[in-house]
Every structure is written in structure tokens, then in C-alpha cells.
Amino acid sequence: MNTDTMRERFTRVASELLDEDPRLAVVLAVISADRFARAARAHPHRVVDVGIREQLLVGVAGGMALTGLRPIVHTFASFLVERPFEQVKLDLGHQAAEAVLVSSGASYDVASGGRTHQAPGDIALLDTLDGWTVHVPGHPDEAEALLRHAAAGTGTRVYVRLSEQSNGTARPVGPGRFQVLREGRAGVVVAVGPLLDATLEATRGTDVTVLYASTVRPFDAAGLRAAVAGTTAADVVLVEPYLAGTSVSFAADALRDVPHRVLPLGTAREELRRYGTWREHVAAHGLDAAGIRRQIDGFLARG
């Protein structure tokens, strides 16, 4: 039984991809550099550690992309999307440069690092830009499949969001498609990435359809519409492992001609000024099975 984490799987697979594809490069800012030591010896011109300079991290990736390489750029989410956002916007987006950003740390995996290491708003921030594909795998096997898909792609800017939290079972990934895992008539629950297990437990015995999303951008509007069409009430619950409400506008757009209600579950905007563990933060934000069940029950009862 394989018990590696998403981050461990990423560094192993990315090293293998460097051996297989001369187009690829890996750009680092200290984080995980030790895990790429062998790859750096084998490919010294395609594994670059810029030091603790996150703006330079993305700038170098943009330059590599413009020379024809496909850079895989990696550090914690707060240092990959939030701190160098201007470079993400300009050196990648404005220059139409293609890259694969792979983060670890998720919303609060590194809770002991404090607020500087937390990034619940990363996807909401990327949503202000055009043309990004966003993967949120829920299992190391899914992370590997989505990374390989992203690395092989052309004409795309991709963000792969890795986390310590993981589901017990991997699901087949179909980038851009929601998977129907359970069918019901009382509403639709969309579970994103590592929150699937808690969502399935929370909805056990309830008459709802459960969709699973390991790719959230592009948003599978057709999949959501089809699921809602099979319900008696167009009630939608979004269970996301980042800022609550991040995908509400996408769901609303998908259902623009359908009277509907949406309950957004995710991390709160209010900062939790505690350290603890990521598991404790999950519970504090009501994203464990008990918290999800309580909120879904209340929402459906009010309908």
C-alpha cells in the first residue's frame, strides 16, 4: 500500500518527467530543493533554485517559457500565488507564457507557520486572471495523473494545488469534468478534492446527488446543470477546501436561467489566530463530516 503524500508524489514524478521530456524544467525557491537533488545533478540547466525570492521564481519561469521550455514552478501556495501575484499576472499572463504552478501547504497545512504560510484565498486570486486551469487533487494518485496531464499540455497555464489532507481512495480524474458519485433528488453537493471523504460521510443517508471535482477551473457548468435537472429543488452546496464562496459565481452562471439556492462551504474569511494542526483548522472551519452535515441539514431544511 502506497502511503506517500501528494508532495512526495509530486517531487518523485516531476523528477521522472525531467528525465523523459527535455522541454520540462523545475523552478524552486528553496522549498523542496532537497527533494530535487538528484534531478539537479542530472539536469543542472533545467532545475533552478532561485533562493528565497518568490517574485524571481515566477519571473524566471516566465523567461524559460518564452524560450520554449515548460517550467514546473513549486513552493508553498502563499509564496507561489499570493506573494508574487504581480509576476503571475504579468510575467505569465500578460506575456502569454505557459507554465505549471504546483503548490503545497494548501489553506493551512503549515498551520504552525502562522498566517504567512496560509493561503485560503489562492484560487479566488487566480480567478481574477484569464486562462488558468486549476486542479485540486484529493489523493496522491490523482495528483500524479493531473501533474502528468499538465506537464504534457501546451497552450495552457495550470495551477495544481496539493495538500496534506487526502481521501482514502483515488478517483479516476477527467480534467474539466465533475464525477457523479451518488444520486439523489433533494439537491446537489459538489465536493472538491480532499474534502470528498468528509462530504460522503456527511451526506450518508441523505437524498442528495454528490459530484466530485478534482478540476475546478474550468468549472463544469454542464455537469452541474445536468445534476440539478435531476432534483426536485435546485439547491446546490459547494464544499471547497479554500475560501468559502470561491466558486459561487461560476455555479450561479451555470444556473443563470434556473431559480436556485447555493450554500458555500469553505474556510472563513475571519483569520483563526491559532496554530494547531491542519486537522484542527478543518474542524474549526466546519469542514469535517460533522460540520458539513450540520450545515447541509440546516440549508435543506430551510428550503
UniProtKB/TrEMBL annotation:
A UniProt-annotated Pfam family:
Transket_pyr
Q: Which residues form the Transketolase-like pyrimidine-binding domain?
A: 4-169
Q: Which residues form a coiled coil?
A: none
Question: Could you give a GO molecular-function term held by this entry?
Answer: magnesium ion binding
Q: PANTHER family per the record? A: PYRUVATE DEHYDROGENASE E1 COMPONENT
**The name this protein goes by in its record:** Transketolase
Organism of derivation: Streptomyces ruber
